[in-house]
Design a protein that fits this description.
Elements (H helix, E strand, L loop, with lengths): L2 H16 L3 H14 L4 H13 L3 H14 L4 H13 L3 H14 L4 H13 L3 H14 L6 H11 L3 H14 L4 H9 L6 H14 L4 H11 L7 H15 L19 E7 L6 H12 L5 E7 L6 H8 L3 E4 L5 H10 L4 E4 L9 H4 L6 E4 L14 E5 L15 E5 L19 H5 L3 E4 L8 H13 L4 E5 L6 H12 L8 E4 L5 H6 L6 E3 L8 H8 L4 E4 L8 H8 L6 E2 L2 H12 L2 H16 L6 H20 L2
Parallel strand pairs: 1-2, 1-4, 2-3, 4-5, 5-6, 6-7, 8-9, 8-11, 9-10, 11-12, 12-13
Length: about 625
């Protein structure tokens, strides 16, 4: 190919990328590749150009061709491994990087990348070995201590993680990655400390999306914060970092009357995760004659739940490692009418996609108990119990759309243990329990729980959570109870259960579950009810503190909802002293739940679909 024509095509591709026209850019690159087949140098240049503009899918194709043409070119294998890794194809990435190490075994950064990939696959022991190899080769390596801290956190070794992360911070005091991870591992009742770490990171990098989302999400855990204050922070912080980085205009799809509405579900949690437990029954019941379902997965975990969800979708797009604007173009090309974000500000979110407005209607639902704070999200799907009309509307940047009975429905696992006899009947004393995330426990809550234990003689408290595998966290929690006169012999702390069946079976060891506050449980409340365990909850003033209200009213158990901390303790104590009522609930809660709106998948799905149609019609009129 003549140099002049080649340069024109390169310039046209670059200009197309700069203006967000990814498909046109790829056409130019493909023409270049077709006219210069067999040239590894050109494949290298094309791949690097694609990388520059974050088009990792196209870069992958060029680097694949590069290593085919020049298998001895080690940098090609390194680049190919990087692209596979960016796109979530971990096994392929590791294989390519091992090719590099076979020739150059002491490349610390390659060992580090392999360790990160293994940790992402939850192969923690293998990842740990790779990190140690990095430190052997390069003891002063800047990034590996942070990676090691993240791994130790994931495996429940919180105190060790904290030490390692502080070592990393000493080496690099301005590392926002280290600061971010220090914010994630603060102890029980230390949500405010987490906020301080996140704010410290944001002072260094105000537009960091991960720090911003972590900061905003953490606000929901802090006891005593005014919902109006939390709302103001969401509306201030979110638009500061989530905005279109490039000019991009959605091509409007011509939709024929009677065509099914195309619904896109965007989530990092399309596996055996709380979000999927509430999404799957909806996807099972969608009316395929009226709605076409597309899924956009930004997560790296794949399991049986993932495979079932794939089978319920017209199309399944893996968007790991693909830039926000490219995902936005993918969604627009798919002609999505309503994009439903299921992550909000939780881990792995892709709110950066939503700000490009790739769909004419954009909705937040299920995964995040608060506003996104973004004007590009049009609606928040909820109900009148989580968000009473006229009470919480002003807290949202979105317009609230309330489903008539409940905000979603729950799907129990395929297999589950049978309800067992109430333990108080066998042991002669009441066992309270809380299986909510330990991060939701705070000092005011421990005061109420201690008051309850003092009001119910000989009662015990079983608390379960993965973080309780860590000795420091256990000692901290025991110490907080001790401040209120509760001795260790009345407490049992359990860490991570092996399987979901084993986790559910542990509900058989408690008589009464106690919800957390201000951040209610959702999945844990459903699990407890399904296993015949009544849940006492305290109604607050915002969605995050009212989910339990919605769940309990749906199963007709409004008497378990308290309106003050004193009432919360009193209701739990009263139920503990009423053995007949406990036995009745134990025997009947599963049936009550099965016949309630909470498990009426068909009915709730129809209500969701009606809401989608109203949203779409309303936006068409704008």
């Amino acid at each position: 190919m003549e140099d002049r024509h080649r340069n024109i095509l390169f310039a046209k591709a670059k200009e197309s990328y700069q203006h967000g026209h990814v498909l046109l850019a790829r056409e130019c690159l493909q023409e270049l590749a077709d006219r210069s087949s067999g040239d590894p140098a050109l494949q290298y240049e094309l791949g690097m150009l694609c990388m520059e503009f974050l088009d990792n899918q196209a870069a992958l194709r060029h680097f694949q061709e590069l290593v085919r043409l020049a298998p001895d070119f080690l940098e090609g294998w390194l680049l190919l491994g990087m692209m596979y890794g960016e796109l979530g194809q971990h096994d392929e990435a590791i294989s390519c990087l091992r090719e590099v190490l076979a020739q150059c075994p002491d490349l610390s950064e390659v060992h580090h990348r392999i360790g990160l990939l293994l940790a992402d696959k939850r192969c923690y022991e293998e990842a740990y070995k790779e990190y140690l190899e990095v430190l052997r080769i390069e003891p002063e390596h800047q990034g590996v201590l942070c990676s090691l801290g993240v791994l130790l956190t994931a495996t429940g070794h919180i105190s060790e993680a904290r030490k390692v992360l502080h070592q990393a911070l000493e080496r690099d005091p301005d590392s926002v990655n280290v600061i971010n991870n220090l914010g994630r591992i603060c102890g029980i009742g230390k949500a405010e400390e987490s906020l301080q770490w996140y704010q410290r990171g944001l002072d260094i990098d105000p537009e960091n999306q991960s720090l911003t989302s972590n900061y905003l999400y953490q606000l929901n855990y802090v006891a005593g914060l005014d919902p109006e204050y939390i709302s103001s922070k969401y509306k201030e912080y979110a638009p500061r970092c989530y905005y279109p980085r490039k000019k991009w205009q959605r091509q409007v799809r011509r939709r024929n009357q009677g065509d099914p509405l195309r619904i896109g579900y965007l989530s990092a949690d399309l596996y055996a995760h709380s979000v999927a437990f509430f999404l799957e029954p909806i996807m099972q019941c969608h009316d395929r004659s009226r709605f076409s379902i597309y899924c956009y997965s930004s997560g790296t975990v794949v399991d049986e739940t993932t495979e079932r969800l794939k089978g319920l979708s017209v199309a399944w797009r893996i968007i790991v490692g693909i830039s926000d604007e490219h995902v936005a173009e993918m969604i627009a090309t798919d002609g999505i009418d309503i994009l439903v974000d299921l992550s909000g500000h939780t881990a792995g979110n892709r709110l950066g996609v939503c700000v490009y407005r790739p769909a004419p209607v954009q909705v937040s639902w299920i995964g995040h108990p608060n506003t996104t704070g973004l004007s590009q999200i049009d609606y928040y799907l909820t109900d009148a119990w989580c968000d009473p009309p006229g009470v919480t509307d002003q807290l949202y940047s979105e317009k609230l759309v309330r489903l008539p009975r409940i905000f979603s429905c729950y799907l129990p696992p395929v297999t589950f243990p049978q309800v067992v006899k109430a333990p108080c009947m066998l042991q002669g004393y009441i066992t309270f329990g809380c299986f909510n995330s330990v991060a939701k426990i705070n000092e005011p809550l421990i005061l109420w729980w201690s008051d309850l234990l003092n009001k119910v003689p000989r009662s015990r408290f079983l608390i379960k959570g993965p973080k309780l595998d860590d000795l420091e966290i256990r000692q901290q929690l025991l110490g907080l109870f001790a401040q209120h006169g509760i001795t260790e012999d009345r407490l049992e702390l359990l860490g991570l259960a092996g399987t979901r069946d084993e986790h559910l079976a542990l509900y058989g060891r408690i008589d009464i579950a106690l919800d957390t506050y201000p951040y209610h449980g959702t999945t844990t409340t459903c699990e407890a009810l399904w296993m015949g365990v009544p849940v006492i909850t305290l109604a607050g003033k915002a969605h995050v503190s009212r989910v339990g209200v919605s769940l309990l009213q749906a199963v007709g158990r409004e008497e378990l909802i308290a309106d003050s901390s004193g009432n919360y303790v009193a209701k739990a104590a009263l139920l503990a002293h009423d053995q007949q009522r406990l036995l009745f609930l134990r025997e009947n809660l599963r049936m009550m739940m099965a016949h309630s709106a909470l498990m009426d998948a068909g009915g709730v799905t129809a209500e969701v679909e009606q809401a989608y149609v109203r949203m779409f019609e309303e936006r068409e009129d704008v």
